Amino acid sequence: MNHYFATSPRGLEGLLAEDLAAAGGSSVKTVPGGASCQGTLETAYRINLQSRIATRLLWRQALGSYRNEAEIYRLAYDIDWSRLFSVDRSIRVYVTAIRSPLKSIEFITLKVKDAVCDRFRADTGRRPSVNTKHPEVRIHLFITDQQATLYLDTSGEPLYLRGHKLAKVGAPLKENLAAGILRLSGWQPGTPLLDPMCGSGTFLLEAAQMALDDAPGLSREPGDFGFEHLKSFDAGLWRTLQREAAERRREATVLPLFGSDIDGDAVARTRQNLAGAGLDGLVTLEKADLLTRAAPASAGVMVANPPYGERLGSEEELAAFYPELGNALKQRFAGWSCWLLSADTRLPKLIRLQTSRKIPLYNGPLECRLYNIEIVAGGHRRERAP
After folding, report:
1. Residues 200 and 331 both lie in one domain
2. How far apart are CA 319 and CA 92, in angstroms?
3. Res. 308 pLDDT band, cuts 50 70 90
4. What would the mean pLDDT of 102-118 be, rounded to a whole number?
5. Which of 104, 162, 299, 384 could form an SS bridge with 335, CB 3.0 to 4.6 Å?
6. Which domain holds residue 262?
7. Coil, helix or strand at residue 274
């Protein structure tokens, strides 16, 4: 059995653990920012193919204590790299450090790269080339204050890059964070879903793929996954898993998914991205202002990533916007479960509606909260005092 570690947006570790177990992982354990498991190569392929939450899946190669750069070099040199991948593959080394006493990440990165190349030269007489932009093999070192762990990256590019986002916006939401928010909301396919600030359509793309049981890894091109460049790659097994996932995909029909944005360009970008994913015509889109638009159904789930200070708008503009948003939800969305992601801690007070849940999440490095507001008939009784 191999030991794997998957990374994810902070706050989604529990959902990530569910994905690892669903793919056949055993002894699943969570830590801030990720989860580990034991599994076979098939487990790794399934996680890369099926997980909507994982950012990347790392395969552990060595673990040991260290006191200085020389001991990290030795840990890396002692791995039989030529057994894992060909010297003809290009490489890049990534280093993540938490509370490490070592001074220079750049120097540690160089020492690991030297160790890998030196071991290849000792074993084969040749050194692999380094490619910092598009490496075929990614080697990750994670160091704490006393321990160093070396991994091979089975994912390649981050897994949230599904391979179909053509048109982007200035402050995009990563696909795995959007998928996690949908799962945290309790939304299920068949339930009406509205994103009234759709931007480039990330929530809608993820929801449509979830509704069709469309495995996120199916849209990647051959060679995009890191495991395809390793000597352990089982092409027959991978093709079988891809075929099984493709056969599970439900036939595309119009879905109860609704998107809108006050910006017509954003609606056009969403439409373009849905078309690029083969989902055009399945989602109802319109140009509309959340503050004035009607609910598309008598009940459902709303998810939104409204503007906040780090993204756009002044604090004064936002302070005026939130009460208007609260009024709009109260007046037109009775029966809806609303989920708002924001880094602005003033939102619950200024929106003047009772928040039933507040879940800490990270949008990249930015600490946010996912607020749940249940809009009930006669919702004025739940209004906060000014």
Report:
1. yes
2. 46
3. low
4. 96
5. 299
6. 175-213+249-382
7. helix
DSSP per residue, 84-138: HS-TTS-EEEEEEESS---S-HHHHHHHHHHHHHHHHHHHHS--PPB-SSS-SEE
Ramachandran angles phi, psi of 341, nearest 5°: -95, 125
Side-chain-side CA neighbours of 383 within 13 Å: the count stands at 16
β partners of residue 94: 140
Q: Rounding to the nearest 10 degrees, give the CA dihedral for residues 31, 44, 54, 108.
A: 60
Does residue 109 share a domain with residue 186?
no
Please answer whether residues 177 and 9 qualify as being in contact, where contact means their C-beta atoms are separated by less than 8 angstroms. Answer: yes
Q: Do 352 and 300 share a structural domain?
A: yes
Domain assignment present for residue 160? The answer is no
Q: Are residues 131 and 18 in the same domain?
A: yes
Cβ neighbors of 188 (< 8 A, separation 6 or more) are none
Looking at the structure, do residues 263 and 146 belong to the same domain, yes or no? no
- Cα–Cα distance measured from residue 64 to residue 76, given in angstroms and rounded to the nearest whole number: 10
Q: Is the pLDDT of residue 133 over 90?
A: yes
The strands making up 34-39's β-sheet, listed across from edge to edge, are 26-31, 34-39, 2-7, 56-65, 147-153, 137-143, 91-97
Q: Write the DSSP symbol of residue 380.
A: G
Give the Cα separation of 345 and 111 in Å (integer): 43
The answer as to whether 45 is a domain residue is: yes
Q: Which two tokens stand for residue 84?
A: 């894992």
Distance of alpha carbon 331 from alpha carbon 311, whole angstroms: 27
Q: Which of 62, 45, 43 is nearest to 1 (CA)?
A: 43
Together in a domain, 145 and 258? no
Domain count, the chain: 2
d(CA 45, CA 56): 12
pTM as predicted: 0.93
